[in-house]
Amino acid sequence: MAYKGKYTVKNKKKYAGDPTKVTYRSLWERNAFRWAETNPQVRAWNSEEIVVPYKCKTDNKLHRYFVDMLIEMTNGEVILVEIKPKKQTTPPKPMRKTKKHLNEVTTYIKNTSKWNAAQQFAEHKGWKFQIWTEDTLRNLGIKVLKG
């Protein structure tokens, strides 16, 4: 089974964007897309259609963050969603400065730069920003495979 690929949108009326360009980058994303498509409380959704400019603390330069999902609920609530493994949402534990550890620290700093910008962007629009981990997906009834 592929962990990334093109997602075929079945309910095109519900997709807010170009339904021919939907790509999943993990099985968790793919399963979240299916959830959004079939959930009667989701009015509309899209993937990587919202772009948030952010300044990364690793290089102090402007970048563009393509948010995993935008979900508009039938109650009017709009949520920007990032889907990440829980272990990537907490700072790496201090350890010897190996190349692997430095990469983890850099990735965490990049991610928090993105998430802070997305939080401000969402608040400005009256939306919410949420990071969905395997726990969130499980709680929503979305199938989570190990790995």
What keywords describe this structure?
147 residues, alpha+beta, Trna Endonuclease, Chain: A, domain 1, 4-stranded mixed β-sheet, two-stranded antiparallel sheet, 3 helices, 31% helix
**Structural class of the helix and strand makeup?**
alpha+beta
* Low-confidence parts: none
**Rg to the nearest angstrom?**
16 Å
Strand order of the largest sheet: 3-6-7-8
Oligomeric description of these chains: single chain
Give the count of helical stretches.
3
Distance N terminus to C terminus? 12 Å
Say what the CATH topology is.
Trna Endonuclease, Chain: A, domain 1
CATH architecture title: 3-Layer(aba) Sandwich
What would you say about this model in short?
By secondary structure, the chain is of the alpha+beta class. It has helices spanning 27-38, 99-125, 134-139, and strands at 5-6, 23-24, 42-46, 51-55, 62-66, 69-73, 78-83, 128-132. The strands form three sheets. A four-stranded mixed beta sheet has the order 3-6-7-8. The protein has a two-stranded antiparallel sheet with strand order 1-2.
Explain what you see.
The structure is a single chain. The protein has 147 residues and is an alpha+beta fold. The protein has one domain (5-139): 3-Layer(aba) Sandwich (Trna Endonuclease, Chain: A, domain 1), CATH 3.40.1350. The chain has helices at 27-38, 99-125, 134-139, and strands spanning 5-6, 23-24, 42-46, 51-55, 62-66, 69-73, 78-83, 128-132. The two termini are 12 Å apart.
